[in-house]
Amino acid sequence: MNKKGFIFDLDGVIVDxxxxxxxxxxxxxxxxxxxxxxEQNELFKGVSRIASLKLLLEIGGKTISQEEFxxxxxxxxxxxxxxxxxxxxxxxxxxxxxxxxxxxxxxxxIALGSASKNATPILEKVKxxxxxxxxxDGNGVTKAKPDPEVFLxxxxxxxxxxxxCVVFEDSIAGIQAAxxxxxxxxxxxDPEVLHEADYVFANFTDISIQFLNNIxxx
Length: 218
Known about the structure:
- The chain has nine helices and six strands, in the order E-H-H-H-H-H-E-H-E-H-E-H-E-E-H.
- By secondary structure, it is an alpha/beta fold.
- Helix 8 (172-180) links the parallel strand 4 and strand 5 (184-188).
């Protein structure tokens, strides 16, 4: 049987932790005396914590000392981690376990490829960690998507050639990274946003076993 390596992004693909990032940034903005909207939060997707804080301060028209800046980075992350602490299986996005289970039954190697530095504790909280043969996260990569580093590392840790790997992503930067790595890119979300992907599904519920078999056989 053919083998393909499957690499999953975390946020927006397996779980939705973006809402927790938003709440933490929103509270930080409120403490600094200004509002931060969900619309503005869209600008923060796939952006590092440091760059996000700079952006937030620009939005609020605030200037602060380096010391205070460093302190805010820590307090934002601490609050985010408190939200993560309370996660459970109810946070898993629809039908993700069905797809993971099927791929595992077929003996396909599975990796996580995420910019999150909290990927491992999140997967433990939602009890999905056992499906993953390897985890490549923000602790092990230096370049952000659309740079393909995270996916190329995932492929090599699965011992698979890049062109034998399949990536599930919800961001355009992630799709571009997968395409640059010469992998099959599957977008989860809005087809207009993810138009550069090889395939796009609204969610995992729309992904049939037949489709997975065709991808594996490909």
